[in-house]
Design brief:
36% of the residues lie in helices and 34% in strands. By secondary structure, it is of the alpha+beta class. Strands 1, 3, 6, 7, 8 and 10 form a 6-stranded antiparallel beta sheet that branches. The protein is elongated. The two termini are 33 Å apart.
Length: 151
């Protein structure tokens, strides 16, 4: 029973994380957009198709370090491909500019953070270990029951 609860917690956290990707999204339809962020707040540039896009970010203090993102996620019929991620070093407005050789349809959305993935993986591991323990205890119980009947 605990295994099923752990599995449900993991799946729900992953679904919540994926469904929040496009909350408050900002379209990059013309190849650039700007967002207001607090210090330490992260964003990912997402695309609805696989792309070779590269992105640059400028904030109040100049250029911001951008990491390539290879994360992909899907929610129902929606599929998202991470292009680039960045974290605001200070509060302010950040301008994101992306270039691609293909028909890039992207947006700036929330990051799918490591916490969401860690909860899912941890819950999945807990559920698997719980099922293994349940099977082990069931086998031990059946062996003991068989031995008590034999004597």
């Amino acid at each position: 029973m605990l295994s099923l609860v752990l599995l449900a917690v993991g799946v729900l956290s992953l679904i919540r994380g994926v469904s929040s990707i496009d909350d408050d999204k900002v379209s990059l339809a013309s190849g650039y957009a700007s967002v207001q962020l607090d210090a330490g707040e992260g964003r990912t540039v997402w695309s609805t198709t696989r792309t070779d896009a590269s992105c640059e970010v400028r904030g109040p203090a100049g250029e911001v370090e951008v990491s390539e993102s290879s994360v992909s996620a899907s929610s129902g019929s929606r599929q998202y491909f991470g292009v680039a991620s960045f974290t605001a070093p200070e509060a302010g407005r950040y301008r994101v500019t992306c270039e691609a050789s293909d028909d890039f349809r992207g947006f700036i959305g929330k990051q799918m953070n490591g916490g969401t993935i860690a909860v899912f993986v941890g819950s999945l591991i807990g559920a698997i270990l719980g099922m293994i323990a349940s099977i082990f205890l069931l086998v031990i119980g059946l062996i003991k029951k068989g031995r008590s009947r034999a004597s």
